[in-house]
Amino acid sequence: MSGNPFNSTFPPWMCGFKHLEYLDLSSTDLKGNIPSAIGNLSSLNTLRLSNSHLEGKLPNSLGSLCKLRELILYNNTLSGAVSEIFRRFRRCNIVALKKLDLSYNQLSGQLTDSLGKLSSLQKFYFPTIG
């Protein structure tokens, strides 16, 4: 679905696919917050929501996506502390994550020791923090 102009908020029905493994809504012009129902996508191993107009903090339910290998969220206006993002994944000890891109957002704070627990991480794109 990448590149299709939704020009709306995140479609709630999209969070009902419990067996979905790959979701790419990059460059779809999505607006608003990432819904907490995203945590229902428990089989997801790739989540790409880059190049849109998503804003606000990442939902706590993101920590329920224990099978994630790629989390690509660059070029939005997501906010909050970077340490909170890593704290969300404590729930399932997400060690399978291989690629994480948080660049070009409005994140704040410092990296914590939690990053070291992502032992499979191969690519990490980090925002400039002011």
UniProtKB/TrEMBL annotation:
Pfam families, per database record: LRR_14
Domain spans labelled Disease resistance R13L4/SHOC-2-like LRR: 17-124
Domain of life: Eukaryota
The keyword Nucleotide-binding is assigned to this record: no
Coiled-coil positions: none
InterPro entries with a match to the protein in the record: LRR-RLK (IPR052592), LRR_dom_sf (IPR032675), LRR_R13L4/SHOC2-like (IPR055414)
Keywords: Leucine-rich repeat, Repeat
PANTHER family: LRR RECEPTOR-LIKE SERINE_THREONINE-PROTEIN KINASE FLS2 (PTHR48054:SF82), RECEPTOR KINASE-LIKE PROTEIN XA21 (PTHR48054)
Protein name: Disease resistance R13L4/SHOC-2-like LRR domain-containing protein
Organism field: Ziziphus jujuba var. spinosa
